[in-house]
Amino acid sequence: ETVSQQIYRRQPHQQRTIIQGQRSKGINDFFQTGDIINTVVKDVFTDVDLYEDHIRLLQFPFISPISEEGIGFYRYYIEDTLAVGGDQCIHLHFLPNNQHDRGFRGDLYILNDTTWHVRRCELTIPKMSNVNFVENMQVIQDYQRMPDGQWVLTLDDMAVELRLYDFIPTTGVVTRTTRMSDYSFDPIDDKLFKGSMKEVTDADARMRDTT
Q1: Residue 65 has pLDDT above 90, yes or no
Q2: I want to staple 135 with a disulfide (CB 3.0 to 4.6 A). Which of 72, 161, 162, 207 is the partner?
Q3: Residue 43 burial class via C-beta count within 10 angstroms: exposed 0-12, middle 13-18, buried 19 and up
Q4: What pLDDT, on a 0 to 100 scale, did the predictor assign at position 99?
């Protein structure tokens, strides 16, 4: 479990993660080598930015279903109109035009108004023979409107079914649960960007209680 603060500025461009609280339990007992953990973290649990034209995941580029290039790559089907968190949305199901192409499959919930903003997305990828430890993957994201009208990501969950060893017939499911809140667009103190490190950890991050 990690509680962190993400800070960002445009000019000069800089982004930093400040880890304010962190704890782990059980993972070191299950995984005996750092190599496995590094593989899972670097290759699997990477951020998925739906608004990037190309999303790098499992060391491969995937075309975003809402990019201009995605219009020619994916096939879209209107399934229904329904409410998502109080917002009226159009439910779109999508999959690659060519079933042999590497791409996402899933569902988009688009606001049924003139903005056509993504309210929720559910992405899956098929098993890929050249990534032999990943059996299945699902990414779920929710977006919410701020009081000033801006839309922000508030939920970003990922579930992966893994086969870590060829000689073990069973698979394991690893999940990453992320919640984002307390967005602020106020000016940031320059002192928070001091130094070149992209991630810093508070000295007492591992001593905080669960609250």
Answers
A1: yes
A2: 161
A3: middle
A4: 81
Instruction: State both tokens at 73.
Output: 């790559």
DSSP strand E in 65-150: where?
A: 74-84, 87-96, 105-111, 118-125, 134-145
Identity at 37, one-letter amino acid code: I
In this structure, what are the phi and psi dihedrals at residue 186, rounded to the nearest 5 degrees? Answer: -75, 160
Quote the strand ranges of the chain, DSSP E. Answer: 2-9, 14-22, 54-57, 60-63, 74-84, 87-96, 105-111, 118-125, 134-145, 151-162, 172-176, 199-201
Q: What is the pTM of this model?
A: 0.78
Distances (CA, A) of 109 to 77, 164, 177: 12, 34, 20
Distance of CA 51 to the CA centre of its chain: 12
Higher-confidence residue of 129 and 170: namely 170
